[in-house]
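2024-03-11 09:14:02 INFO worker-7 job=invfold-0412 stage=load source=structure_tokens
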């Protein structure tokens, strides 16, 4: 005790505890590193853990346990007696012996805002947050954010998962924790009103779900299966009828058809959407059906009348409804939508000239509220929608033993009612559905972007007329089992929807469809895999899923290519690394990153060097470094002086980061280049075949569609857009010269040849340069002028320049460009521009040029020649 604090002798204080003035502590324990604010009282048998902060004016009563790393705000109050009273029944004042202390626990990492009251017997879970001014009357789940009086769960804190934390295929815990208060309130209302079957909760949900679906009526039912069955029956579909649907769906679709008394027959699906193919439907109706004497449409397969179509809006995307409805009208068929996976999905109808929701386009539609659906109950539930009042009335009869009034039965019906409790749960969830669907669409877009460069993984197709809600995110891969096993080992959940098409199921063997009856369905069924998709999926979890899938896809591709014989007897390919200078390349560099990520042979490391970017390039590249551990962003120190030599400085900075990487080949790649997926594999094979090659590359095509003309320059020149060096060659020539006037690629190739290396542009492939640039055959006047200055700088022979200009002038409209080249050369000579090459290299260059000129004269200038001095870009060459 001192003049300011009252601290009893029985208080246990840990190390480095910081105590403010005016506090009252007795019989309690305070952990290491904890800070206690002013005017705080902590009673006996209360404990405060390590590294906590108890803010001023807070009262911690007996029986409270505050664990480690907890924040307690200002003026918080704990209560330890459920029924506090001042006096006993005899009027005497109560003492400690008259009340029962109930334990309260604040778990590790929780934060309690200021002015909070916490009642007795409550546990606040780990990392939970209680908003200021709340009254906490019940347990707070871990990671939950609660607020209000009484405190209710507002959302969940999405903490970053541990590096190897499992990623579930579906998370049904988090959304229900977030909605716990609302769901408990709905349940409590049912308990307190004894509303268990029918009543206002069911009617209220029906009204609002119909509004959500843009329909006049919704009928709540006990499952999606009954919803489809009752919808068919109410539309007059029954015994002896044939109903057309797809084999790529859950068996509930065909069960409902069969239980309505009809016979399901199948048509194949669309390869892109996995929904009913309009072309296949039209083919079935025109080829596999006929008309009887009464004009009825008869199936040639079964001899029964075809009366209805059930398009399935699979995976959360609607089928091509305009085409289906057109055929239905043409052949006099009823359309009943199976929308069990498509709550809120939309289709742009050209016939109606507006977006329309799933469940609003057919004569009736069925929805499932199985817990895993976009709108899921806490058990079994379903609903049917329609714009026809008579169909709605009929379905209501069917669900309730055929009675419109108790004990008055108009028809035989079924027990298909939706429990009132489930209706209450669904009604509480329904306002959240739009937001959940929007989040699913965001996640799908992110998946699509992250998988964009991987050709071995086929992502979902969403046509322009569709707004899918992605109940499932389904991709296709060649080795589905291998992919699933790999992801399972990585702790990532997956699913298959569906592995065996219905026409191949044992239940339908009597249909005698046989293998290959529906080739698109069968191909898809062998390759589809569903990846994690739920609104609470975090970015970190998505990245883990994508990384795992990409790793396995590339491993599968490696195994495929490894089993093939590499041409020319190459046993192994050299390893390679990449360096790319990037200054303000936000608009173009993403295409380059995707092209590199898609390579059949991946680099050991790729250093992207940012040379003072200000347009968001660094931020964009950082997104990909988070996805690919082999990509690294290096930021150069600021430079006041800007010149063409900056590329050489940037590449040197990148190579410094590669000094410990055991690469055989280094590729210096511009930030605006794309190419085919086997581009680097192709060049690596060329290096492996010929140990004398020091630098290799390919021609480029720029955005003016010009291709470099090697008839005058020779294929010994290798474009700086992508120069690929053997490591020993690069080190021998000393890398790129920091030449302010540019031409560092030409100087590198010249130096290599002077030292005995061969350099070669291989014309079997090209790369695409995504900006207008100057070429030996074309380009802007300014580019010609700059090229002339550069040629002077590296010491080109004047006669060579004159003849090259004359050559260009023969290219009809390019006379001015040729003159610009001469002007640039003359301007540089007058200005005595920098010459970064040695006299020895200049002499070597001039000899090379004159030898080549003599060869051209021998073969006649402009005539296509053979060997290294010709360029024929084959028609098959693609970027």
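2024-03-11 09:14:09 INFO worker-7 stage=emit residues=879
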């Amino acid at each position: 005790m001192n003049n300011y604090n009252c601290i009893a002798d029985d208080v246990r204080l840990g190390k480095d505890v910081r105590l403010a003035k005016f506090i009252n502590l007795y019989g309690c324990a305070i952990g290491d590193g904890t800070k206690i604010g002013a005017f705080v009282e902590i009673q006996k048998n209360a404990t405060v853990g390590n590294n906590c902060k108890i803010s001023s004016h807070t009262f911690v009563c007996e029986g409270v346990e505050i664990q480690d790393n907890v924040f307690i705000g200002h003026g918080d109050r704990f209560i330890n007696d459920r029924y506090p009273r001042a006096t006993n029944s005899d009027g005497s004042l109560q003492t400690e012996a008259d009340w029962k202390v109930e334990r309260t626990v604040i778990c590790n990492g929780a934060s309690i805002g200021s002015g909070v009251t916490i009642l007795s017997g409550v546990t606040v879970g780990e990392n939970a947050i209680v908003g200021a001014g709340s009254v906490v009357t019940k347990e707070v789940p871990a990671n939950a954010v609660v607020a209000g009086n009484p405190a209710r769960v507002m959302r969940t804190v999405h903490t970053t998962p541990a590096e190897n934390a499992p990623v579930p295929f579906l998370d049904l815990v988090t959304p229900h924790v977030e909605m716990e208060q609302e769901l408990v309130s709905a349940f409590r209302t049912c308990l307190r009103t004894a509303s268990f079957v029918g009543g206002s909760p069911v009617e209220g949900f029906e009204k609002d779900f119909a509004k959500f679906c843009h329909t006049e009526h919704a009928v709540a039912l006990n499952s999606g299966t009954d919803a489809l069955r009752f919808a068919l029956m109410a539309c007059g579909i029954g015994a002896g009828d044939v109903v057309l649907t797809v084999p790529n769906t859950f068996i509930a679709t065909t069960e409902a058809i069969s239980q309505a008394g009809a016979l399901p027959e199948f048509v194949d699906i669309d390869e892109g959407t996995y929904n009913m193919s309009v072309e296949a439907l039209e083919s079935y109706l025109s080829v596999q059906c006929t008309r009887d004497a009464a004009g009825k449409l008869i199936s040639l397969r079964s001899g029964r009348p075809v009366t209805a179509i059930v398009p399935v809006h699979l995976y959360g995307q609607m089928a091509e409804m305009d085409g289906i409805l057109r055929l239905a009208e043409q052949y006099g068929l009823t359309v009943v939508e199976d929308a069990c996976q498509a709550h809120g999905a939309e289709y742009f109808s050209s016939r109606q000239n507006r977006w329309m929701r799933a469940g609003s386009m057919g004569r009736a539609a069925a929805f499932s509220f199985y817990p895993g659906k976009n709108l899921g109950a806490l058990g079994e539930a379903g609903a049917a929608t329609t714009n026809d009042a008579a169909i709605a009335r009929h379905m209501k009869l069917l669900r309730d033993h055929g009675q419109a009034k108790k004990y008055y039965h108009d028809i035989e019906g079924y027990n298909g009612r939706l429990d009132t409790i489930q209706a209450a749960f669904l009604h509480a969830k329904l306002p959240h559905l739009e937001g959940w669907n929007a989040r699913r669409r965001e996640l799908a877009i992110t998946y699509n972007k992250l998988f964009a460069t991987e050709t071995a993984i086929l992502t979902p197709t969403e046509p322009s007329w569709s707004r899918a809600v992605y109940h499932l995110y389904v991709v296709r891969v060649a080795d589905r089992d291998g992919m699933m096993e790999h992801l399972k080992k990585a702790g990532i959940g997956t699913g298959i929807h569906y592995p065996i098409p219905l026409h191949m199921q044992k239940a339908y063997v009597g249909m005698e469809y046989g293998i290959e009856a529906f080739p698109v369905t069968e191909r898809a069924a062998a390759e589809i895999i569903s990846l994690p998709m739920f609104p609470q999926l975090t970015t970190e979890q998505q990245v883990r899923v994508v990384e795992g899938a990409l790793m396995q896809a590339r491993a599968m591709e490696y195994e495929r290519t490894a089993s093939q014989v590499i041409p020319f007897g190459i046993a192994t390919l050299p390893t390679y690394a990449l360096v790319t200078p990037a200054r303000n390349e936000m608009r173009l560099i993403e295409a380059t990153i995707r092209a590199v990520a898609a390579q059949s042979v991946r680099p050991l490391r790729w250093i992207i060097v940012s040379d003072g970017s200000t347009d968001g390039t660094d931020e964009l590249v950082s997104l990909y470094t988070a996805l690919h551990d082999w990509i690294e962003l290096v930021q150069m120190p600021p430079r006041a002086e800007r010149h063409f030599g900056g590329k050489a400085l940037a590449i040197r900075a990148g190579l410094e980061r590669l000094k410990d990487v055991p690469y055989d080949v280094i590729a210096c790649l511009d930030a605006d280049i794309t190419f085919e997926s086997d581009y680097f594999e192709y060049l690596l094979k060329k290096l492996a075949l010929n140990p004398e090659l020091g630098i290799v590359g390919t021609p480029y095509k720029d955005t003016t569609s010009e291709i470099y003309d090697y008839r005058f320059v020779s294929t010994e020149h290798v474009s700086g857009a992508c120069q690929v060096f053997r490591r020993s060659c690069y080190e021998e020539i000393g890398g790129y010269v920091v030449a302010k006037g540019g031409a560092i690629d030409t100087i590198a190739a010249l130096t290599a040849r002077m030292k005995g290396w061969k350099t070669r542009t291989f014309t079997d492939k090209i790369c695409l340069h995504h900006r207008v640039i100057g070429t030996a055959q074309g380009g802007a006047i300014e580019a010609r002028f700059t090229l002339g200055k550069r040629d002077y700088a590296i010491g080109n022979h004047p006669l060579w320049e004159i003849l090259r200009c004359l050559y260009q002038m023969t290219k009809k409209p390019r006379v001015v460009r040729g003159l610009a080249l001469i002007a640039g050369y003359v301007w540089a000579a007058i200005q005595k521009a920098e010459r970064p090459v040695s006299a020895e290299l200049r002499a070597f260059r001039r000899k090379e040029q004159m030898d080549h000129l003599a060869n051209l004269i021998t073969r006649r200038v402009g005539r296509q020649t053979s060997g290294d001095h010709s360029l024929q870009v084959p028609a098959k060459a693609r970027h």
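2024-03-11 09:14:09 INFO worker-7 stage=report msg="The radius of gyration is 37 Å."
2024-03-11 09:14:10 INFO worker-7 job finished
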